[in-house]
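Why predict the complex rather than its parts? Because the way molecules touch one another can change local conformation, and only a joint prediction can capture that. The input here totals 823 residues.
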Amino acid sequence: MRTAIICGAIVLLSSAASAQEHGYTAADIESGGRLYQSSCAGCHGTTGDLVAGIDLARGQFRRGTSDAEIAAIIRAGIPGTTMPPSAFSETQAATIVAYLRNMATARRGATATPVPPRGDEGRGRTLFTGKGECASCHRVNGVGPRVAPDLTEIGAARSAADLQQKLLDPNANVRAGNRYVRIATKDGGTISGRLLNQDTFSIQLIDTNERLVSVPKSSVREHTIMRTSPMPSYRDKLGAEEVADLVSYLVSLKGVRP
Amino acid sequence: MSTKHTKKTRDTKTRRRVLISCGFVAVTGAVLLAQQPVTFDRILRADREPHNWLTYSGGVFSQRYSALTQITPANVRNLELAWVFQTRGPAEPTEKFEATPLVVDGVMYTVMAPNHVVALDAATGRMFWMYSPRLSTLARVCCGRVNRGLAILGETLFMGTIDGHLIAIDAKNGRPVWDATISKPELGYSFTMAPLVVKDKVIMGPAGGEYGIRGFIAAFDAKSGKEIWRFNTVPGPGEPGHETWPAGSDAWQRGGGSIWVTGSYDPDLNLMYWGVGNPGPDWNADPRPGDNLYTDSVVAIDPDTGKLKWHYQFTPHDEFDYDATQIPVLTDLEWRGRTRKVMLWANRNGFWYVLDRTNGEFLQGKPFVRVNWAEGIDGKGVPKRVLNATPEGTLVYPNNQGATNWYSPSYSPRTGLFYVPSWMDTSSTYTKGPAEYKPGNQYVGRFPTMPVAPLRTGPGAVNQRLPEEAWGAIQAFDPKSGELKWQFKMSDVTDSGVLSTASDLVFAGGREGYFFALHARTGELLWKSSVGGQVSAAPMSYAVAGKQYVAIAAGSALFVYGLRQ
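Output of the joint prediction:
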């Protein structure tokens, strides 16, 4: 509880600082947050990254850059896509923009990491396959193992700050899509891998042999969803410059759609 | 592979034997699947693994025939819903769900409208992953923001998109491997068909004949997406067939010739067969005097080079939108004293054909619905046309939507019958009107009028017609004799494909929202299920852990049935 209150206070302070840059009040952000969570989060997710390839918290929007443009999209929707028009007033839409502009700060909360210095993308690529040994678990553009998350589009979905944080402190923010599960079956077997889906009666995962496996819980003795990341921290393995290089390479991975 | 299916038993030995016979290794309840890459040899010999469905029509001969025999005429009444998969955002559930799923070693892959791919546990319908590409807002589609399915090779799925791309997707994790820009969506090029894999190539062509496109069939390297060859379905200057377009005119540049459905492949002849769509503009042929090759034709193409081996045109100089948007069904038949490699084809123009697929020779062509635009077909395979569109309006049978359309037929090697979803007693009035080409706009002429809606429409009653105004049927024909063997009548038309099985069942559905099983030899109704929405897809069958399933998309959901345990 105490931790939560401290975190909340920091969020508000951070938001206020950002709000000054954009001319928003903390109340605007709070109000926009409520509207966002009630009307937008159903599709975009509570943290803004539920729609594949779209991360609202990045602060970069494909179809608009100014606050007015983004507010107009919130009100009019995007024809031909699943983004519908809304009944928000201009003021309401502006508060949602205020919330979006501060979403990344809110999401990182107490562990907010400053934007890392720019590194060298080419050296980062070399580190990815060499010293960093990233390619021994991660897949990029159809090459590499599938057990760890595919990073082909990671630069379009995550900010440099997020990626740096992941490299230095992998356990700080393990996203729901990157969790691992270990299953002990009633017949004494074990199955483990990355959790893809679960329900009351079954669990879906991609196992360590890269098979898509669906396990009925009736055959499970116990299962554990790991709260930590199997990825090692690079805090002591790579120097600050190398981390910056690696982050630069990861940011360059924008996916395969031209 | 002969497939045996037994009821679930507590006898571990028996269970293990059954599972192993289907290529699985069991771990108490959890079926750990031996998920091997889908080589082209596996696709060619899909009959050896009937528990899987490796290509759009089930095999390269496109018979949509399943060798599974657990579900029979005797027990089909015990068929019950195993699971349902509902479409969901960001997919567009108000669109038609037209895809045939693929099933590979217990994993089902299918596409929700327009281009959202899912991998599901084929036994339970639970989701492994979903992939949603960002689509251009410039896509223009005449007949629905839809997709009819995927192709697979190795561990990679292939999907054409409504905005003119071909995307390779990792089958294990649902991430894109490459994404190739093929055509300009703003000019009406879209890809809605399931691609065909031949050897190391992925082959497909664009829809868009209603937008003045120039159609093509193209092959892409499965590893990289690089275009290897392109065959223009409307030949340009210097290409054979260009003389069938008006000299001194650029009508050919917007001549249509869409590719709406997947082609077939004969490995012995090393030939692919593809149906080509209508010429543009659809309903006013004045800008394009001539036969307008290769519209409304089947083309036989070498998959290595893209070179044309032969063609046969069903409807020369079409002005009724009778495109050859059908699946070429291949089989070998005893034909008047000798075995011939043939192709069966029930065409939108109201005639069904038997062609020799080695050279395109016309063997037989008979009407399968009411036809008045032609008085039969002459000995050379040319329709004896008696009607044309006029400024005053011409009443034509069958209607603009055709005697059939893109709906998959089926051929059973057991019964020797060809099963055709048919629109009966349908008519349209064609009135010649102006057609002006503007890039990105429809280029069609005046829309014909007809008593039955061409596509699923909005709210309101769907069938208040008189019986003679249009009805639907599944019809069974004997290709050797040309006879109609049986006909299952429906009060409404059908956009459903047909599946036949080695236990003499035929599965199909209709616009009314039923999915049903018929006896393949008599057409007797054996079982039906109300699916509460239009069937606008084709059924398929597969098995997991020794249990046979039948799947059909209807409305905005995928329904999967199996026998009650």
